[in-house]
Amino acid sequence: MVSSQARLAVFGVALHALLIYAMFDVHFLTPLVHGMEPTTADFAAPASRLVVIVADGLRADRLFELEDAPGDDPDAPRVPRAPFLHGVAKSRGRWGISHARPPTESRPGHVALLAGFYEDPSAITKGWQANAVEFDHLLNQSSAAWALGAPSVVPLFAKGIEHVRHRMYAEELEDFAASNDHAALDEWVFDRTIEILDGRSLSAEDEANGRSRDTERAALEGERVVFLLHLLGLDSAGHAHKPFGDAYAQNVKTVDDGVRRLVDAFERRFDQTPRDGGTTFLFTADHGMSSRGAHGDGDPGCTETPFVAWGAGIPAAADAAADDACAPRGKDAPTPRDAWGLEDKERCDVDQADVASLGASVLGMPPPTHNAGSLPVSYLDPAMPSARSGAALANAEQLLAVYRRKAAVAARASLTAFATPGGLRPYAPLAGANETLAAAKHARVEGDHDAAVDAAQALARACVDGTTYLHLYDRRLLLWTIASCFLGWIGVLLAELATEGRETKRQVCRVIHTRATAIAVGVSCAACAVLASRRAPATYYAYFTLPAWFARRAFLAFASAAEAGTERFYKRREAVELLATAVAATALARTLCAAFHDRRVFSYLFAATAAALVAYAARAATAKRRRARGVARAAAVSALFAAAGAGALAPFTLLSIDLEANTALVVAGVACTALVGLLSHFALRPLDVFGDDPEDADADAAGGARRPGYKLLVVQLSLLWCAGLVVWMVDGLQGAKASIPAWLHACAWAIAAGAMPLPLLSPPRVVPRFASVYLAAATAYALFSVSYESLFYAALGFASLAWLVLERHVQKLAAADALFDGDKTRLGSRVAESNADAAVTFATSSVERDADKSVARHAATFLALINAAFFGTGNIASVASFEISSVYRFTTRFNPFLMGALLMLKVLVPMITVAVAFLCLLKLRATPPFPAYLVFIALSDLMSVTFFFEVTTEGSWQDIGMSISRYALMGTQVVTILVFLGLADAYAAAIPTRGVVARRAGNDAGKKTR
Ligand SMILES: [Zn+2]
Fold first, then answer.
1. Gap from CA of 107 to ligand 1 centroid (Å)
2. How would you classify residue 628: left for phi > 0, otherwise alpha for psi between -120 and 50, otherwise beta?
3. Contact of 782 with 776, CB cutoff 8 Å
4. Sheet with 279-284, side-by-side order of all strands
């Protein structure tokens, strides 16, 4: 029995790991194909060198905005925050918004800008430090390049390429602390670049590579030279002080001034060379920043980055209005003319990946091999029509090469193509691609450059669409296959519950058994043969064979139940209850799914729960029951407390998730937690609701009627207040922009680490043990809290405790009622009536019972509470993006792995508290935990399937990213819940099983009941 449960659990974990991984096979396929035909470009390069300046984390609005003029005159006209770049945008260059795509992170942003394609979201995990260059990009194609900036970005484009020189500052400088001067990082990059231009800088590595001042000068004065300047300051300033803070605005000014100095230095350096003015500047950002100082998602603050281009080959902004090429560029919202002082009709937007082909074009090169962007021709000077049409043609030819290569790969590998008569259907609009290309080339030769550009751009767009079409070719098939894996698995879980894990073989006729197995084997073999012939990835074998085996298992279970005529399933009353449970479960799953979209749903859910509990309390208190009146009244009171707990949780999911730092709220949360801890010890413990907390034998020795655990309570409360003090001190220093001393960070670590093992010392009784876990977790959680989180945690703990007390009373009432029902059958109703007035007493029992219907209620409540614990203070986006301020009490040094781990802990702490409450409840119910897990997992998977069908590849990038995150999160929950319960079990294991037995007073023949 145990081994079959363990087998099922291990299989379930493996299956969910596979189904989450399936997301990579379905949605996160790398867009890259290799082995393209190389393309060429035949037009004169407008520029000799290209300078790409990437201001990491710069929002478009914060660069373009006007601000109040310095001085006291309120009537003075507003002035640009970035006077140099604003001036360039208005006069000598062109500007627009560059639209980034989620994940709005540094690596994908830089890859889009310099290589021209959008990496799959899994690229974030690939790293902050890529070792090998596995794709083509502008620096790779150059004759000589310099990359300067942060060690988290520069190596991506410099490592392993001999002609790319790099300069990086030490990693220690990437510090997110409030006191740090972030703009210094940017000054450093500008200064080093100017030194290189002046011929004053030669790194040790350069010398080792045999470079000298002469070779460097020659390289600098050559053609196809690329500079990449990565400016990390704004990203750090935005994370530390939010993008609407002064530090960020000041950093924008530093960057603007640095660009002015840089441009001066380039003009100075190259005014002697034959082609002066041969420098093109592109200024942009890899991603923006949301108002709460984070990025990663599809928030417009993150996706809308500035784009300013000027120099050789770039036309002036004033002509943009008359330039047809500018018109078709999509704008999400009109330009705020008064706020920015810029004209909407002069604005030309680009997609982030388009920047790479523009950069290649000004240097007279074809776009990078894997490029998927289409050339923004509006940024090429109409006075150079041949370069414009030549670049557009090079772009179209390169995109067509990508499409053709992808089509060849898909024809060999696609499963949908296998199932379609005639094989792969090519993208119809590209049927005449060769003719279109020839016509465009002909028009160019004839001197009709506009016609050539139009034809080439239409072809380029069709190639991008065609490549996407091929990229998604197998998606529908895979979606349905994986959905059937899920549905099959839910069927297996239900079968397990129905048969209670009993082996089905013996009960089903051997013929049916053999037939079912033969069908499953046949289907699997056929699927494997097809997959092998298409060289499908190994995971596909699982996706396409598992549904058959799940179907077999579920079919056999229900067949055996039918054959054995199991009473459970064929009693009418049971069937109605089963149906009602299924409807309720689906309704709950749908409600929680809705809460993933809109966390306010939790508020409605808790408000409705509170109302229902008040109604229950009213009924329990006023019912004309003859037995156990005292218990009924206690149940009514505990239902009122539970209603208060649900009511206390309700408001939090209405509050904003943009957590504004508020130390007072954190300290108020600490006070509330301490109060709940004190009440549970001094008000709840003396009642001994759970019958496991008697007064100590040597109570007098302990100083009166005390139970064990009071000393620990004092220690834990002190630690909790120490955590509050650390929060208060760190926030004070942070507010004063002072640096945070190392000893304060050490205190935070010591308090958090010291608090967590303390609950193991508490007496193994439900109330003191739970209260101790609650206080320990609250201590760690307070250190993570920025705003109202610690208040939420206080409410969550109170609600969990109230849940336990209420369930206990419900259990006692049920036991009393069952005792009476038992009398009715045994003694006949008249005698039973006369007995009914007799008092009922309760005793605890450690005998385990079979699971009953109430496991469904417990599992459902647990599911709702654990998700509320997750959504109470944030949503998926706030977890996916980097909310750095939560970890300031522990570290201010930028370390993505440590910070990520700390943020994970912040999410985990409230969930573990709820998990401990759930385990305590199972102990109190004296039921085996396994059926409750099965129900929990079935409910979770019901939600997973819903999210799986909601995964979209259309609509805004925010919608796409969110739909994928919801599915990933829900799929992971099934696996992570085992981790939570495992951790929680470390605390709850020592609590003994305590069921309830009802007895008639004065009657020794007690009757064990549910
Ligand atoms: Zn970045």
1. 7
2. left
3. no
4. 164-168, 144-149, 225-231, 49-55, 279-284, 304-311, 94-99, 350-351
Taking a C-beta distance cutoff of 8 angstroms, is the pair 868, 592 a contact? no
Dist. CA 86 → ligand 1 center (Å) = 22
Angstrom distance (rounded) from CA 722 to CA 350: 52
* Euclidean distance between CA atoms 321 and 378, whole angstroms: 10
Q: Residue 822 corresponds to which tokens in the numbers above?
A: 């038992």
Spacing, Cα 197 to ligand 1 middle (Å):
26
Closest-CA residue to 358 (of 400, 314, 417, 401)? 314
Q: How far is the CA of 122 from the centre of ligand 1 (A)?
A: 16
**What is the DSSP secondary-structure string of 260-296?**
HHHHHHHHHHHSSSSSTT-EEEEEE-S----TTS--S
Query: Which DSSP state fits 623?
Result: -
What is the arithmetic mean of pLDDT over 252-278?
A: 83
pLDDT at 59: 94
Query: The pTM is what?
Result: 0.72
Chain centroid to CA 202: how far?
43
How remote is the CA of residue 754 from the centroid of ligand 1, in Å? 36
- For 415, the token pair is 């499963």
Lowest-pLDDT range of 191-205, 542-556, 811-825: 811-825
Residue 437 φ/ψ, nearest 5 degrees: -65, -45
Query: Distance between terminal CA atoms of the chain?
Result: 23
Q: Which two tokens stand for residue 174?
A: 């990437």
3-class secondary structure, 414: coil
Ligand 1 center to residue 327 CA distance, Å? 29
State how far the Cα of 268 lies from the Cα of 92, in Å rounded to an integer. Answer: 18
